[in-house]
Specification:
single chain; alpha+beta; Alpha-Beta Plaits; four-stranded antiparallel β-sheet; 4 strands; binds uridine-5'-diphosphate; binds magnesium ion
């Protein structure tokens, strides 16, 4: 799957505000195939496991509390250069620095509630896809 897939999550506030349809529509407009999709309510333990790479960071506890505060929508997206193109589509981590028209600019609220997650490397994309989905749950063809 190297290079062709990335993982995204619509975070709790964006979901609660009703932006899921608009965000998924934008993703499709940009040429991605959605090859797996689910709504899920992470518990704190699962949120901590997902963000384990950040466990030493000062924002880890707040971030994982937030990610376990309401349902999220998780998806695997397929397209050439999926990881880097999707990072461009979502924009900078802090919505106030995100380029105009990016998903975080349009639908983000603040640094922790920045609308969506996007994998930062092919290696992490694979780990994150498999955190939420089995191979059987990914559509092919
Ligand atoms: N985050 C935060 N405070 C910070 C840095 C990051 O709350 O000082 C949150 C933010 O929501 C971000 C997530 O932690 O999306 C993961 O951080 P990362 O540096 O991986 O940013 P991303 O890859 O999501 O742009
Ligand atoms: Mg990251």
């Amino acid at each position: 799957m190297t290079g062709k897939k990335t993982f995204t999550m619509i975070k709790p506030l964006a979901f609660k505000q009703g932006y899921t349809g608009k965000i998924l529509d934008r993703i499709l407009e940009e040429g991605y195939l959605i090859v797996a999709l689910k709504m899920y309510f992470l518990c704190k333990r699962e949120a901590k496991a997902f963000y384990e790479v950040h466990k030493e960071r000062p924002f880890y506890d707040e971030l994982t509390d937030y990610m376990a505060s309401g349902p999220i929508v998780a998806a695997i997206l397929q397209k050439d250069n999926a990881v880097s193109d999707y990072r461009k589509l979502i924009g900078a981590t802090n919505p106030k620095d995100a380029a105009p028209g990016t998903i975080r600019d349009l639908y983000g609220t603040d640094l922790s509630r920045n609308a969506v997650h996007g994998s930062d490397s092919d290696e992490n994309a694979l780990i994150e896809c498999r955190f939420f989905f089995s191979e059987l749950e990914e559509m092919t063809g």
